[in-house]
Design brief:
The protein has 182 residues and is mainly alpha-helical. 87% of the residues lie in helices and 0% in strands. It starts with a helix and ends with a helix.
Length: 182
């Protein structure tokens, strides 16, 4: 029985190492290095330890690390799928929010113009509006490519700028209306 146990570990666990490498490659292709970085990095580390154990001729340890690497890579791929779905939902919500704010800012600028707010006072808001429209166009490309985390990062800042511009235009409009009444 001891001979059988030892014979099972008399050569490198190449099949398991190859499986772990394939699982890590699949996880990376799915985006695990960005969406599930901790688990992905642990898989890469375990695979390296498997190679190190082979170099030390500790094939049993190499087998354990290779199996651990494969399992961690599979978990990283699973976590990536969940994280991507959440990022996609968040990105879609931000696209909707920013699109609504673009419309709100555009309307606010037109109302402010009707209230005779000087065009120079609306220059910054117009720039923000143009930048936001451009960002939304770029975002659509990123969404199509599945870069949801990038979309969330980009549009979070765009939404903040839109909110500031909407507030500024409303303040200018109210000030102009108050000034005209006085």
């Amino acid at each position: 029985m001891v001979a059988l146990a030892l014979s099972g570990c008399s050569e490198p666990p190449q099949k398991e190492i190859d499986q772990a490498k394939a699982a890590i490659d699949d996880a990376k292709a799915a985006g695990a290095d960005g969406y599930a970085a901790d688990e992905y990095n642990a898989a890469v580390s375990a695979l390296q330890k498997a190679h190190d154990a082979v170099d030390q001729r500790d094939y049993r340890e190499a087998l354990n690390f290779a199996i651990d690497a494969r399992q961690r890579a599979s978990e990283a791929a699973r976590q990536t799928a969940v994280a991507k779905a959440l990022s996609k939902t968040a990105a879609e919500k931000l696209v909707t929010d920013c699109s609504a704010r673009v419309t709100q800012l555009d309307t606010g600028i037109k109302v402010a113009e009707g209230a005779r707010v000087p065009p120079r006072d609306l220059r910054t808001a117009r720039t923000t509006l143009a930048d936001a429209k451009s960002a939304l166009q770029e975002t659509r490309k990123s969404m199509d490519a599945g870069n949801y985390a990038e979309v969330v990062t980009s549009l979070t800042e765009v939404r903040r700028k839109l909110d500031g511009a909407i507030l500024a235009v409303d303040t200018l409009r109210q000030r102009q209306q108050h000034h005209r009444r006085s």
